[in-house]
Amino acid sequence: MEEQWRGHGNEDEEVEEGEDETSYPAALEPSFDGEDGGSTPYANSNGYYHEAYGKLEVLKPQERIPIRNWNEEFQSVLGGIARCGDAGKLDHYNKLSSLAHDFVYVAKTYGKIIILERFLPSGQKTIKPVDIGGTAGGEKYICQGILFKFAVDTVGIYSGDEYSSKAAGHELKGLMGYYQCQIEGVHVPLCTLIDYRGFRLIAMSILPLYYGGLVYGSNDGGLSIHADDPLMNHMMKRAAKKLNIKGHVAGRSTDKKFIYGPTDIEGHKGQDDRYYLLDFARVYPPEAMPEGSPKASYLYCLLRPEFVKRNPVPLSSDAFSRFGQHHKDVHEREVVEATQRLHRKVIPRFAAWLDSQDERRLKGLKLTQLMHREGINNRHLGRIRFLVSSAPVKQLLLNEMLSRAIKCSLRLMLRRKMEETTLPSEEPYRRELIDYFNLVLGKRPESDHFWKVEIKVMLQLKASRVLGRKFVNGLSTDEAAADYNLKRDVSMLTVFTRLQTIMGVRLAVKALQQLAMSPDSLELVYPDLLKISAKAKHMDIISHAEGAALCIQAMNTKGEESDRLFNLAMAKFDTALSSMPDNQLILKNWGDGLCEQMKTKAGEERDRLVWKAIDKYQQMRCTLSLTKLGELLHRLASDQTAEERARLYLLAAATYSAATELRPDLWQAFYSWGDILYEQARAKAGEEAEKLYQLSGDKYARAFALNPGLHIHHPPPPHGTPDGAAPPATSAPTPSAPSSTATATTATAGKEAGDPSHQQQQQRGGGGHGQGSQDDDDETDRRVDGNPHLKYDVYYAAFEDEDEETSLSLSMTSLSSLLLTSSSPSLASHLRRSPSPPPPQAGLPGPTFSLSTPPSPTRRSPPVSPIRGSLVDPTRGTGDSSFAPASLFAPSPDLPSLSSWSTGSCGSGLPLLPFTTTTTTSSPYAHRHRHSVAIASPALVLGAAICPDHDHDHFVFPDRRRRPYFAGGGPLSR
């Protein structure tokens, strides 16, 4: 895969101008002491143990240079963000941004020294190499709590250093992929890549690992494979589902294991009892390469994360590798089909879109970011150029292709110069760069040959082994001819501007001005090259954290200052997305920030912000956020003028349209869409009203077809209803649910950070299994419709386990006669947004339940034998109140039956009635599941969660982000 380029803001601040990089010893205190400049081993370096680091010799640090525990700080800050409320998030985001800034700065500072001393004898190096095992990358270094290793091909695995650099880029992408999954319990290290003088260095925070702590994957090339820890296996399965990575059998026939991800990924249980992942270079599956490709292409020609996530079937990371021998044909066929879809559908579709853009818009286009958003690798620039016909688009693509080919050539030249000179210096490299730039500008005798032959070799299939197979079909037949000078089709200003960004060089402003006005006359001289800087690629934490912090500050201010902070936040999010356009966390925060800003605007400015928010939610494929944005717009329209209300209705309809495009079975969006059209119709008359009523009926009909249990609150009226008149209730065009049944439906909030709507969605009926709105984060909302006081209403709810994909169906009868009373204010305070308050029986001791005789069995409440249990009120200590739930809970015929009852509590003052079931799941600890129901108020708050607890044999309420789903009153406060 082609190396990713990032915008200016996404890369680290360059070293301040005037810094003398040749004076590196003066800027660096020796990191370690030792006799004769050697090493003094000691047993524990920052608590860092690892099976591969069993032989680690670490040099004793000088006392005057403190070593930060980067990992502990990183994990603590991330944990704080997850645990704290909105009030504390600002402080934690600022801490995260500061930590990431510091890590990148330290890594870049010491990384430059290590690269400059690459070819010095070990005894003469300022930072000594350490022996920690492994051959890939050659020498390793540990300095200031950071592990450094070169991304070079020392043993011929990758067929060249350039390919090894690509693999290091995939290491960062894979790490970021797992980080974005936000699987609680899975931890990754801080990581950054340092590019300098043609070399790439991987810098990673030291982890508290130990010999024997490997519990997942392999660290010996697949000879032994681990899947030893049930919890780790479970978390890796969840992560693979989010990444769309296929689980598969790995290992020798005598020791086979079923794993998710590449065989050579490593999962460790650290000394701090956290689970850590390492070695992410092959997380994403390889692209199926044509005949004659290098054998090792599966190590660096990988599919983009965005493409893998959207592929119809999960793909195996080990396809086409020596690890993927079990069911090899199946795994490789799926990857071949995915590759064909990329080449035949995704790339042509993007090329057609690009071809349709006018020249004015092309000037501000972020080409590679748009390609990555569609899941297209940079190596396919040539395929795209072959498919377009617009001359400006062809030039745009050629400029990018040339910039990247020249970058590869420059990196190779700088590596060779480093090996030739050996001593750290600056002058030879500046001269080499100026000479090469003038060759490109046409100011050298060899320039004609360069533009007619050499540059084409770099771009075509017959490229050398070192430069690799770059851009297939990138040149037309005429352009590829030996007498065609390609320089005539190139914008020199664009190429040199891109080279500054991707190479870390800086040219004088006057030189660039002359290049813009008269490119043929410019010849660079020594003073025109101001700086050669180290480039840092990192985890996008800095820009994301800064953007999130700015959003929070903007929401706490008003007026122009709020707008300024919002705009700064959006710029940070844009920067953070430049290399990983599918980052769900960033897209979510960006969309939510736009929604917050939209609330203070009106007219076209508000509309522009809404469309941007829709775009962000579409990118993350989050139907829940789209639906909630539609309902927010619906609410905002209620107190607007007729004109503004019409605009907001149109925007709300657009959100529902976008949601149903992503999920055609999303009945909630169709239902809300019908509501919008219905209200529009009420404000109209004549044929326009009739058309809107018809459209509304179509949406209701679609919602009912997807969920037959719906009850339509206000069906469209018959033709000719007067303007604004309420339609008769008997004119429903679609069947309604039975009058005795009100059903729980999906829709719940979850815990989306910065959510623009903090209220539950409008309650409405439902009743189908699995018809809820479920987004990529697996969060579901449960709502209840109907009159909660109807004597024999049946409330039906399906509670889904996001991990195990199992569900529990409960039917509840005689709700109006089930009473919860308590003299404990603390107990009552845990009820939120209950449809009706508890009855005035506060004098009764403890929580008391009474039950009337249930009605005759219905289709959704089959008779069961009476079950008895006991209830404990934790606010009053162990109580003796009794609960006789005769026929209260009845299992659905096609779902698990109840086998026993036990007692417990949610830990927040609300009594729970846990029970076990006979469910059989794939979970390694299914026998310890507790499915719990919290009963409160006559309305009721009916809460359920499926929460595996591998440490204790009792139910644990969702303090560990095992999300509960509630029907009839909303989530309980924690």
UniProtKB/TrEMBL annotation:
Compositional bias per record (Acidic residues), positions renumbered to this chain: 11-22
Renumbered to this chain, the Low complexity biased-composition regions fall at 721-763, 843-868
Which segments constitute the Clu domain?
42-291
A GO BP term here is: intracellular distribution of mitochondria
Stretches for region Disordered: 1-44, 708-788, 826-885
Name the residue ranges with Basic and acidic residues bias. Answer: 1-10
Alphabetically sorted, this entry's keywords are: Cytoplasm
Pfam families per UniProt = CLU, eIF3_p135
- Which GO CC annotations does the UniProt entry carry? cytoplasm
Q: Which InterPro entries match?
A: CLU-central (IPR033646), CLU_dom (IPR025697), CLU_prot (IPR027523), TPR-like_helical_dom_sf (IPR011990)
| Keyword Zinc-finger set for record | no
Q: Which domain of life is it from?
A: Eukaryota
The record's annotation in PROSITE patterns points to: CLU
One Gene Ontology molecular-function label: mRNA binding
Q: What is this protein called?
A: Clu domain-containing protein
Q: Which organism is it from?
A: Acanthamoeba castellanii (strain ATCC 30010 / Neff)
